Amino acid sequence: MVQGGDQIGPAELEGDLPMPAPEEATTAAHAGTDDENVHATRAAEVLRPHAEEAFAEELAALAARDDRPRPPRWRLSPWAVVTYLLGGTLTDGTVITPKYVGPRRLVEVAVSTLATDRALLLLGVPGTAKTWLSEHLAAAVSGDSTLLVQGTAGTPEEAIRYGWNYAQLLARGPSREALVPSPVMRAMAGGTTARVEELTRVPADVQDSLITILSEKTLPIPELGEEVQAVRGFNLIATANDRDRGVNELSSALRRRFNTVVLPLPESAEAEVEIVTRRVDQIGRALDLPPAPEGIDEIRRVVTVFRELREGITADGRTKLKSPGGTLSTAEAISVVTGGLSLAAHFGDGVLRPDDVAAGVLGAVVRDPAADRVAWREYLETVVREREGWADFYRACREVGP
Ligand SMILES: Nc1ncnc2c1ncn2[C@@H]1O[C@H](COP(=O)(O)OP(=O)(O)O)[C@@H](O)[C@H]1O
Ligand SMILES: [Mg+2]
C-alpha cells in the first residue's frame, strides 16, 4: 500500500513539471543517432553556419567530380578550390555559386601558395573580403574553417601556441592532458589550415611566436620536453588591414614566411552591385527578409554613392568630390542594404525604397560629424539633386539629415 502510494505521488508530480513527454524523448534519442539529421537541423538553426556547412553540397559535388591531383590532406585539388571560390558549372550540370568576385589570377596565386611551404597573407583595405576569402579557402582546402585566432592588441602568446588548464596543471603538473592547444597547434597536428585574423594588430613579440611555426614547422613545448611537428597539409592564412600599417607592422623575418596577396576593391560598379546583391540575398534569406533583386535600383544607388565618395569623383569623371573619412566599402554597402531590407519588411511595403536606405547611407558616410557632414551636404546638393531619376532618393536623404 505504502509502496504503491509512493509510486503514484511522484508520477503525478512529474505530470506538472515541464518534463519532455516520453514520445519526444524517444524522438530526440533517435535523432541523436542520425548524424545527417542533426547536421541539417543545426545548420538551419544556427544564425551563421560555417562556410563548410553552408556550402556542404557544393563542396561534396566538387569532391566527387574532381579527378585532379590533391596535395596531401587537401579535400579538393587546387583547381577545384578555385572553382569553388569563383563559381562555375560542373560536367554533370551542378552549379557552383561564386563566393569571391575578383581577378582569377589573384585567387590562383592564393590557392597555390597554400600548397607550398609558405603561408598566405591577405592584405587590403577594410571590406575587401579578406576574412570572407580566408574562411572559404580553409573550408575548401581542409573542410574546416574554424581553426581561427582573432588578432587584437590583447592577443596573448597562448592564443597562438598553447595554454594550460590550470585545475589539471595544479592537480597533476604539466602533462598532455593539462595542455590546451591553440587552433594553430591543432591545425599543425591535423595537417589542416589555420587562420589568424588581423595579424598586424597582434603585439610584435606575440607575432614572433609564428616564426618558428612557419619556418621550422614545429611548436616546441619546453614544459614537457616535447614538440608538435606540423603534419603535411598544414598551412596558415593571415589577414591584415592596409590601414593598420604601422600599428605593429610585421617584422621582416615573419614577412618572409608569407606570400602576400593584396585584395582590391571591386573594379567596376557592376561588379560591386553584383557582390552586394548576392550577399544581401544570402543574408536576407537567413533572416527571412524580402528578396534583394526587387530593390536593385536602390542597391545601384547605394553602390554609386559609396564609389563616388570613396574615389572623390563622380562616375562620369566630371565633378571632383570631397571624400569623407569612412571606408565606404562593399561590406558597408552590404550592411546598409540589409538594414534597408529589414526596414522595408517590417515597416514598409516589403520593397526596398529610397527612404529605407537613406538613414543607413547617412550613417555610413557621416562618421565625423563636422568634416564628413560638409562633404555629404555638398555631394547631396551638387550631385544627387541634379541627377536624373534621383529626386526621390534626394528627398529621402534630405528628410533623414541635414
Ligand atoms: N570581391 C568580393 N567578392 C565577394 N564578396 C565580397 C567582395 N568584397 C566584399 N565582399 C563581401 O563583403 C563582406 C565583408 O568582407 P570581409 O571579409 O569582412 O572584409 P575584410 O575582412 O576585408 O574587412 C563579405 O560579406 C563579403 O562577401
Ligand atoms: Mg576582416
UniProtKB/TrEMBL annotation:
It comes from Streptomyces griseoaurantiacus M045. The lineage of its organism: Bacteria, Bacillati, Actinomycetota, Actinomycetes, Kitasatosporales. Residues 120-258 form the ATPase dynein-related AAA domain. Residues 1-36 are annotated as: Disordered. GO terms for molecular function: ATP binding; ATP hydrolysis activity. InterPro entries: ATPase_dyneun-rel_AAA, CbbQ/NirQ/NorQ/GpvN, P-loop_NTPase. This is ATPase. It holds the Pfam family AAA_5.
